[in-house]
Design goal:
Layout (H helix, E strand, L loop, with lengths): L6 E4 L5 E3 L4 E2 L7 E2 L5 E2 L25 H18 L11 E2 L7 E8 L4 E4 L19 H5 L1 H8 L7 E9 L2 E7 L5 H15 L3 E5 L5 E4 L5 E4 L2 E4 L10 H14 L5 E5 L5 H6 L4 E6 L2 H13 L4 E5 L17 E4 L7 H9 L4 E6 L2 H13 L2 E10 L8 E8 L2
Parallel strand pairs: 6-20, 10-11, 15-16, 15-18, 16-17, 18-19
Antiparallel strand pairs: 1-2, 2-3, 4-5, 7-8, 7-9, 9-10, 11-12, 13-14, 19-21, 20-21
The structure holds S-adenosylmethionine.
The site of S-adenosylmethionine (SAM) has 19 residues, from helix 6.
Length: 400
Amino acid sequence: MTDSNTIIRIAAKGDGVTADGRHVAMAAPGDVLLPDGSLEHGPHHAAPPCRHFGTCGACQLQHCDDAALAEFVHNRVAFAAQSQELDPAHVAAPAMSPPHSRRRASLRAINGGGRPLIGFTQAGSHKVVDMRECHVLHPRLFELVRPLRHYLAQLKGRYAIAIEMTLVDQGIDLNLGGFAPEGLEQTETLLDFCRDQGLARLTLDHGFGAESFWEPEPVTVTLGGYPVAFPPGAFLQATQHGEDALVGAAREWLAGCGRVADLFAGLGTFALALADTSQVMAAEADAAAINALRLVANRSRLSVECAHRDLFRNPVRAEELAGFDGVVLDPPRAGARTQVEQLAASGVSRIVYISCNPSSWARDCVQLKEAGYRLQELRPVGQFRWSTHVELASLFVRQA
Ligand SMILES: C[S@@+](CC[C@H](N)C(=O)[O-])C[C@H]1O[C@@H](n2cnc3c(N)ncnc32)[C@H](O)[C@@H]1O
């Protein structure tokens, strides 16, 4: 029998929870809470690999071993399904992205008493953790931090720069928000920095949108084998591993569907992967993203029809879905309540719902269950290793 002081699970925000329901920071399943409040480490308590763990806001779970991490990701998704009685027929083992695989990141740089500090912020704060190592970032992104720190060392006074880094086909796409070089000298050293680092692109955003400062050749990301123009700030799945897991699920579950709708399509992560086997209708609210998808679809003569559409205000209606055999949707964190309402009322036989928020997903999917869809498959996905951010792929099948 489990002792009431034993940690039995990790809660959604990363605390360990004892068998009698107390929350304990930095505790892994199997640890035991001692009477003096300290922890006796159990078999799933790992030595955190990073010196910044505990202060850096990017990771909450480095004290958990791989088995405990996978269990956390599984439980988050399974509990969300359970909370709405979705009762999945099959739950797959979580697809966990490996260390050093994150291909996009939002960092921050500030002047820390005369020298630049660059890194993720602390949890719930604007304080910057000056990053000296990182176990989640792709090494190519991490390698840029040191030269960037060196470049920023010439700046005087207060600054707070929002740094967006994405690994694209040509190298690193960097956006600096809230920064513009002052004068010829800073501009020239910034150009030298871009050249020396072999940046794919540098955009600067001082409040009016990202402006290209350096882009020796057009920046692309390859999706489904097709290079798609990558608009500054566009969405890309956090790791290649995660993208492969999500796309693999969609391809497998929608195999044999003649006509498929890809809703919240972004640059076409799913549409382009499905286009060799299905006719695809892709809908997306971001004009730059859907235009980039349209361009590559036209150029490569793919059967992908693109619609620029706000699916919150103007969801694809049930009548419009007549003739579609399958739908994949991958909405933002808020979910897609009104769109799912229309899906529930449609006759579409297979719905693949990809989500980065198990709670909004479960809430939305109640509508599918009530309309006669069955949750056939559930695949938890841990793209944000060591964080509490969990994703999933799910397949709903209309019951006859
Ligand atoms: C999680 S991303 C998924 C993108 C794409 N499926 C992928 O995997 O790369 C969510 C997408 O929803 C889009 N989006 C957000 N609000 C929207 C809305 N109201 N209508 C349509 N698309 C929206 C975003 O621009 C973004 O491309």
